[in-house]
Structure formats: structure tokens, C-alpha cells
Amino acid sequence: MQAQIQALLAAVGGGAGQGGAARPNQRPYMEMAKPAIFNGEAGKVGGFVTVCRSYLKMKMREATLEEQVTWTLSYVQGGSADIWKENVMEELEVGELEYESMEEFFTNMKKEFGGGEEEETKAAELRRIEQGGKTMEEYVQGFKRIARGSGYEGRPLVEEFKRGMNGGIRRKLMEVENLPTLIEQWYRRATALDRNWRESRREEERLRGKKEAGGGAPKQEQRQNLPRPLVWQRRQLLPQQATTGPAPMEGIERTNAVVVRGQGQSMGISSRRDPFAIDIDQGRNCYACGGFGHMA
Fold first, then answer.
1. How many CB atoms lie within 10 A of CB 106?
2. For a disulfide at 29, which of 15, 83, 87, 284, Cβ 3.0-4.6 Å?
3. Which among 202, 222, 246 is the end of a domain?
4. Which residue has the higher pLDDT, 273 or 128?
5. CA atoms within 13 A of residue 231's CA, in its CB half-sphere
């Protein structure tokens, strides 16, 4: 069986670009990355299957199922994978291979070495993923990677995708008349909406910078440079200037004085004038009440 594997590897590796004779229906030689040796570790089975699937699709599309399985087993070595490999090779020798396609073979391989843990891990990771500061393109690619092998599909997969995207984009998508139904439609619409929103933000920032560069100081700075309005404050009376008469008129300062005829001087009494005060004049009668010795 080992000789068959070596012959198969030589046939696959040989091509027109390496000096080998090309098969009639073989595609032009193309370099492809080959998988690393798989030793049965559960965390590596997914990556191993992905690389094998890509290589078989590009280089061994026309090979039989037995040839594809044999080529894949050639990279399974060591650890707990050796026992499983021997059992599969025995089935190949007796012609009792229980797989009908490579996808079924890879699915069984994941169950054998993943023990169901990989699907549970991806499902938990899918429930935690969020867009955050990433673009929608980055979020979609990460979501697709986790969704594969998580067991989610259909409506539950759409709901997890909606939950993880930013709230603003989700509300915009929910407001449209015809909501997308398939997950691929959600991918396309969310990506287009996110791209338009980011382009609009860049345009607003460009116009704001242009306006500030050519329009002088911003309005806020101009308002701060304006002179402060004058505020008339009521002057407070000194203790010795307080009177027991009515309150003087606000904002106007006057002087109350008693004038005595014949003495040629006035005696200051207060720094503020009482509007109801009267001047004493001993030379005439008051024109208001007719009394003598004062004047209203």
C-alpha cells in the first residue's frame, strides 16, 4: 500500500513544468501549497481538511475517490491518527470503503478527530462575534470563516449576522421595504450600506476642513473675542452714609444739604439725596403749602 501511495504522489507531482509527461486532459502546471502533516490534533483538523480540499479541487479533480483518499492519507502520520489511517487503508485494500465522496470522508474525519468540539467552539464564537470598529467587508469575511462548520444555517445564521453588525447599519437595513431573506443578500446589502456611510463621512470631513481653512476663525472663537457688555452695578452705601429715609433712586447719586440764608455756606449731611427732602429757606413762603421758613 505504501508503494501505491508513492506512485500516486509521483504521478501527481510530475507535470509539464517539472519534466514529466503531461496527461492528455491535465491542466497546465500550477504550483499549489500542500497540507502539513496531520497527527490527529483536534485543533488542526479543520485547517488540514481545507488545504486538502483545495489541492484536490485544483490538481486532482479527475482522480478517482480511492486515489484522492489515498493521497490525503499520505499526509496523516503520527499520534492517534495512525490507527485511524490503518483502518481506512485496510478498507481500501479490500474494496469496502464506506465513503461515497470526499466531502463525506472529510466530514467523518472531522468527527473522528474533532469529537464535536470544533462545531461547538465555532458556534460559541459565532454568538460572540461583533463588527465593532471593523469595516463591513472585514466583518463579513470573519463571519463566513466562523460560520463554516458551526452548524448554523438559514434563519438562525441570518439572526446571528444581524446581531453582530453595528446598530446604525442594522436599523437602516430593517427600514427598507423588501428585507433580504438569504444570508448572501444580507452580506451584499450590508457591505454596500457600510461603504456608502463611510464615504459620506469622509466627504463631510473634507468639506469641514476646507471651510475652516478658508473661512477664518470659527464662529465660537469670534464670539469669545467680542467685548463683554457693560453691567451697571448698584453702588453700596458706606456705613456712615446710610440714612433712615426712603431709598434713593437707583443709579443716580445726589447730595442732601441744608441751606441757611446769611451764612454763605452749606452743611453736607449725606452723599445721596432723598427725593422727598426739602430745602430750608427762611426768606420766603413755601409755594406748596404756604408755610414760612421752608420751600418744597
1. 20
2. 15
3. 202
4. 128
5. 3
CATH of the domain at 185: 1.10.1200
Closest CA to 75 of 100, 111, 44, 101: 44
Cα–Cα distance measured from residue 251 to residue 124, given in angstroms and rounded to the nearest whole number:
78
Contact predicate 281/290, CB 8 Å: no
- Report whether 100 contacts 54 (CB < 8 A): no
Residue ranges making up the domain that contains 43: 2-115
List CB contacts of 227: < 8 A, sequence separation 6 or more: none
C-alpha cell read off for 143: 463571519
The grid cell for 115 is 469529537
Helix, strand or coil for residue 270?
A: strand
CA 24 to chain centre: 54
Residues 6 or more apart whose CB falls under 8 angstroms from that of 4 comprise 70
Residues 21 and 126 in one domain: no
Tell me if 148 is assigned to some domain: yes
Q: Which residue has the cell 486538502?
A: 52
pTM over 0.90: no
Strand, helix or coil for residue 156: helix
Q: What is the pLDDT of residues 120-133, one digit of tens each?
A: 777 888 899 999 98
**What is residue 268's three-state secondary structure?**
strand
Domain end position, chosen among 156, 183, 202: 202
- Exposure class string for 120-149: b at 16+ Cβ within 10 A, else e: ebbbeebeebebeeeebeebbebbeebbeb
Q: Which of 102, 152, 108 is nearest to 126 (CA)?
A: 152
92 with 125, same domain? no
**24: CB partners within 8 A, 6+ apart:** none
Q: Which amino acid is at 94?
A: V
Over residues 161-214, the pLDDT tens digits come to 999 999 989 998 888 888 888 999 999 999 999 999 889 888 888 888 888 877
In-domain check, residue 46: yes
